Amino acid sequence: MFSVQLFDDAPDETAYVLGLGFRLTNEKAIRSVQNWKRVSNGSVVTVHDAFTNRSFQDSSLIFVTDYHPLSKTLAEQHLCGPNRFQGRHTGSHIPEQVLWTYVTQIASGLKAIHSCGLAARVIDPSKILLTGKNRIRLNACAIMDVVQHESQRTITDLQHQDLVNFGQTIITLGANSPSVMNNPTKAMDHFSRAYSPQLKNSIFWLLGGLQKDQERNIDIFITGISSQLISTFDSALHLDDQLISDLSRELENARLVRLLTKLNFVNERPEYEHDRQWSENGERYFLKLFRDYVFHQVDTQNGPVVDLGHVLSCMNKLDAGTDEKITLISRDEQSCFVVSYKELKKAVESSFQALLKPVRGL
Amino acid sequence: MFSVQLFDDAPDETAYVLGLGFRLTNEKAIRSVQNWKRVSNGSVVTVHDAFTNRSFQDSSLIFVTDYHPLSKTLAEQHLCGPNRFQGRHTGSHIPEQVLWTYVTQIASGLKAIHSCGLAARVIDPSKILLTGKNRIRLNACAIMDVVQHESQRTITDLQHQDLVNFGQTIITLGANSPSVMNNPTKAMDHFSRAYSPQLKNSIFWLLGGLQKDQERNIDIFITGISSQLISTFDSALHLDDQLISDLSRELENARLVRLLTKLNFVNERPEYEHDRQWSENGERYFLKLFRDYVFHQVDTQNGPVVDLGHVLSCMNKLDAGTDEKITLISRDEQSCFVVSYKELKKAVESSFQALLKPVRGL
Questions:
Q1: In angstroms, how far is CA A216 from the centroid of its own chain?
Q2: Segment A105-124, tens digit of pLDDT
Q3: DSSP B91
Q4: Which of A103, A101, A119 is nearest to A201 (CA)?
Q5: Which residues from chain B sit within 8 angstroms of residue A112, using beta carbons?
Q6: Residue A276 has what DSSP assignment?
Q7: How far apart are CA A179 and CA A161, in angstroms?
Q8: How far is residue A209 from each of residues A168, A171, A224, B135, B243, measured CA to CA in Å?
Q9: B228, B242, B261, best to mutate vs chain A, most A CBs in 10 Å
Q10: Does the model's ipTM exceed the 0.90 cut?
Q11: What pTM did the predictor assign?
């Protein structure tokens, strides 16, 4: 099955995974995707739908998932991209703390998947997306359920296999060269040397090496990594704090854009250029002088004052409608007016509303 | 000790907790605050410093912490604010999921504090800040270490007390009426009826009710609540996603503000009003017409077109400098020009640079 990703322009950032030349033999297979809609987890790429299609002169299978722009797979990021099959050990060591964040996120994703009675079935560095700094998501999850629907294995069995694949993925990343995977002993060796006993034991447990014949599920694993989990949780909270701080600074800009646009709508309208009633109306005349005050200041040598700080400060006071008074000078320098930002704000509002009136009258 | 919170205008949002009339008897006490600087956790209000001062005609003790504007204490939020000592049961039931988010965050904070060899010593609904939706932080942490420095209790003992206070805080919130705290049996009764056995057992463990004489520390507690922890972790990731999405929309606004400001700096400068060289220079003339194109459109009835979408679309194309061509009409409707956004972008840049020249020449 040849697969290609298509992206549409829909604002909700959806991706379509297209499998050409796939013949669907069992209707039930496609319906299994409906179960995947219940999985809504920050560490799993959300699956929306799947359907067959004949538009490509072929019988095709299309999956619809969330689209995460500018993401890479873990393989591209850590296993040296296009050169990764040349067998040379060119990747750089992944710090233990980063590996732990991957472990906790995959564990979170698997918990959500397993609690819905499903199994990921594909856990591989080439199918895990890195969508942000140390932020990963399991991808391609629903596909095997459709393509290999006739699987004889039970869900419990598939879920156990998930744990093993999980462990193998971490070993591959930690060993940092896929050639080592061909030699499990060498891989575990390298891993044990490079990382702490706690990480090594957690991964060993996933591979089924410890506590054979005892109950093995993702909940037990999570209990075992709880201290790392709380550490990754705290990092997510710190990121929330940072984003909220950045966002509040930026929200100010939206307000300014709207205010600047309103001012530009009102000032210098050609249809009122010779309209005495419009231009000599006190309010609109002040707005013209105010525009000069904000944008057309000159210094003592008559050079233009180009100061964004001054512009922002004036616009913020205008938006707030403060009582502070400023002096506006007419262009011929013959007249001089003292107005407050409060009066100017009122002027902007009523002039702008006046523009809207003819439109509403239609 | 009377305490008041003062806030300065520093951009880093620092708060000062001022304790008047406090006489510091032991220099070592103040130095204990240095240990608190090592605690950097998303669920603990960061402590920066503490010092004594005589500016208020008194010997005062001042603590410097992060400032979280618009936050409430959990007591104000859930235990009915100012009426909470009137003994009436007026608070609304706190859903179990919310209580669990509080539990996981306090656990995260305590883990950070205990790992630094410290103890919170104050865990109470009136000293826990709600700084966002379901987002809490332990407050007033370093204070007892200074004020009750002579405490005879060992750190391990104080840390055990932290766990007990933790449990009592959750019971108080769950029981939702401080009067019930006077009757521990009644409180546990209410709690057991209102919440799941898992939550009840976790809190009971904190209070020391289960497994007496066995080792008790925050790490063991965290292992016990790991499934709830992973759920709260996933919520934090969802919030990260939401914030990043909001932020990327808003970042566009800063760019637009700068571009609109540049346009306004260049257009209609009074000192060039009669300067043929300035205004009939092709570039600046086009910018004047472009300003009309963007802000001064009229419809078929000659009514003003007030369309923010049009403005944003034009400004974005201008910023990108696309090859799309537009028709600009002179005010007297006698001349008509076809220019591309690419040429207009170049015009904005060079006109703006021309404004900066005289300034640089100084």
A1: 33
A2: 999 999 999 999 999 999 99
A3: P
A4: A103
A5: 234
A6: H
A7: 22
A8: 12, 14, 15, 40, 41
A9: B261
A10: no
A11: 0.77
